[in-house]
Amino acid sequence: MRRNPDDDKDPFGGGFNGIEDLLAGMTGGDEPPVDVHEYDDEIRVVAELPDVTADDMEIQCDGRTVAIYAAVKPRPVMTRVNLPSYVNEQSLHWSLNNGILEITMDHGTDPANIGFH
Q: Which pTM does this prediction carry?
C-alpha cells in the first residue's frame, strides 16, 4: 500500500492551531502533580503547588475524595483526588511548605458497611 503525501498535511489548514492552549485556559489549565501514598494507619496526599500560600488554600474531603483549591493568579488551581480507601474526613491535617502541600488522613470505614448480621 502506498502512502499518500497529502496525509501529512493538516486537513483544517491550521485553523485549529493553539486549540490546546485555548481549552486549557477555559478549564483552569494543567492540574498540579499529585501523589497518593497509603500506609497502614493513614493516607497521605502530596501535591506540588508553587507560588501558593496557606491563605490561598481551601481543602475539602468527603471521605473518599479530596478537593484542593488555591485562589492564585493568573488562574486558580483546582484538582480532585480519588483516595484508595475511605478516610475519616475529620482527621484531615495539612501543611504547605515551599510549594509542597502534604495532607494526611486516618483510615475510615466504608459508610455503606452498616453491619447487617
A: 0.69
Give exposure, 13-52, as e/b (b: 16+ Cβ within 10 Å).
eeeeeeeeeeeeeeeeeeebebeeeeeeeebebebebeeb
H/E stretch holding 95 reads strand 93-97
Q: Could you read off the pLDDT of 91-117 as tens digits, one per residue?
A: 999 999 999 999 999 998 776 665 655
Residue with cell 478537593: 67
What range defines the domain where residue 40 resides? 32-106
Asked whether 84 and 38 are in contact (CB, 8 A), the reply is: yes
What's at 45, amino acid-wise? V
Q: How many Cα neighbours within 13 Å face the side chain of 4?
A: 3
Identify the CATH number of the domain in which residue 55 sits: 2.60.40.790
Residue 110 burial class via C-beta count within 10 angstroms: exposed 0-12, middle 13-18, buried 19 and up: exposed
